Amino acid sequence: MIVMKFGGTSVQDAQAIRRVISIVKTRLKDSPLVVVSAFARVTRLLVEMAEEAQAQHTSEVKDLMDKLRERHEGVCADLLGGNPDLLKETSSLVGAVCDSLEDFVAGVCKIGELSPRSRARIVSTGEVLSSIIVNAAMNENGVVSHWADARTLIITDDNYMSARPDMTLTKANIRRVVPGIMKGADVVLTQGFVASTTAGATSVLGFEGSDYSAALFGMALRADRVEIWTDVDGIRTADPRVVPQTQRLERISYEEAAEMAYLGARVLHPLTIEPARGKNIPIYVLNTMNPEGEGSAVVMGEGIPDGPKSVAFRDEIDFLVIESSQIVGVKDMLSRVFRILDDCRVAVSLVSASESKVSLTIPAGQLHTAEAVEQISEIYSTTLYKDKAQVSVTGRNVVYHQGLTSGVLDIAGTVYMVSVGANLMSLSFVVDREKIREIICGLHDMLFKTE
Ligand code: ADP
Ligand code: ASP
Ligand code: MG
Q1: What is the mean pLDDT of the segment spanning 157-175?
Q2: What is the pLDDT of residue 329?
Q3: Which listed CATH number (3.30.2130.10, 3.40.462.20, 3.60.15.10, 3.40.190.10) goes with 311-448?
Q4: Whose Cα sits closest to atom 5 in ligand 2?
C-alpha cells in the first residue's frame, strides 16, 4: 500500500479536488491511504477565529464562522450537485461539524479564555471538514472511499498545539483499525495534522504537520512509499517563491532533507523524515498541478553525491547574544542557558558558543520566548535582535565546499554569526533581514547557476 498526502493548495477548491481524485485514480492498484490538509487558508482563518473569541469579539467570530460555512458549503454544492442525496448527507455532516465548532467557540467567547487545548480543538476543524468533503467527492466519482478519523488513531502527549505521538500506541491503533476500514474500499481517506491525547482531547501535530501525519501512517502500515503532493515540482535548490530559477533535486538523502526542512525549507515538515527513514520508506514530493512530473525522491544516502543541495532560510527569527562578564573560567554557561530554554519550551534553531558567549537564533511565534529571555538576562548580559534572519546552505559535507564562507561574506557584507551543522550537512549565517532575499539569490547563483 502507499500513502498520498495532499496539502492545502491541492484541495483549495472544487477544481483542485477533482484534480486530486484523478491523481488518486492512477494509484488505485497500490491501495492508497489518502491524507488531506484543510483547504488552503482555512487553518489561518481558524487561528484568527480562536483569537477573536478569546478577545470576546462576537461579531468578528460570527463573520469568520459564516465565511467557513460558505466556503465549505460552496465546494460541496459544486462537487456533489449532480447527486442530491449525497449532497444532502454531506452538507448535513459539514453543518454538524460547523454547529459544534460554533457552540465551542461561543463558550470561549463567553469566558474570554483560550487554553492550548481549546485552541487545538478549534484549529483541527479544517482537516475534519476537508476530509468529509473529499471523501464524498471520491465516492461520487467512482472511487470507493472510506473515511477514517485520525483523532482516534494518532495518540499524542498533551502539548496540544505541537503534540508528539506515542509511537507504540499510534502504531498499534493504526495497524489494528485501518485494515478493517480498507476492506471493500479503493481508498481510505483521513486527515493530516489532527490527533488526540491519551485522555481523548483533540491535539494537533504543529502547523504544517500534515506531512508528519502521512509519514506516521506510512510507518505504521509499512507503506511502499509516501507521496507528498504539493504545489511545486519537487524539492528544489531554493524556495521558488524567492529564487526565480531553481533546479529540481532528483534524489536527496533522508538526512539532507531533514537538515533543509529543519533550517526552514517548508516543502516538508522536519519531523516527516524520521518515521520514513526508520522503515526505509521512500518519500516522493510531487506536484498536483503537474502530476506527470518526476518530482523528487527522499531516500537512503547511498550513491548520492556530496556537496551543496539547497539554500534554506528563516526570516522570522529572534537573534539572541548572551555574554558573561568574565571571559575565562565561566562555568556551566551553556547548560544554564539551555535549561532555561528547555523549561520554557523554547526551541532553538542555530547555536554558536564559546566559553563566555553564546549566540542563538530562536524561531519566532513561540509562546514563552520573552519569559526565557528575561530569565537568561537575570544571569548574563543579553541582547535580543529582532532585525536579523538566517540563511543556510545544506547538503552532505557541504562545509568542505570551497569558497562558501568568503562568498557569503562578499554577498552579505556583514555576518553576525556563523554556525556549522554538527553533522557537517549545513553552514548557516545570521545576516540583516532587510538583505535576506538578495543574499539568498546571490548565494543560489554562486552555487547553482549553470550558464
Ligand atoms: P502544502 O500546503 O502542500 O503543504 P507548503 O506551502 O507547505 O505546501 O509547501 C510547499 C512550498 O514550499 C512551496 O510552494 C515553496 O514555496 C516552499 N519551499 C520552500 N523551500 C523549498 C524548496 N527547497 N523546494 C521546493 N519548495 C520549497
Ligand atoms: N492545515 C495545517 C496547517 O495549515 C496542517 C498542514 O497543512 O500541514 O498548518
Ligand atoms: Mg506544508
Answers
A1: 96
A2: 64
A3: 3.30.2130.10
A4: 208
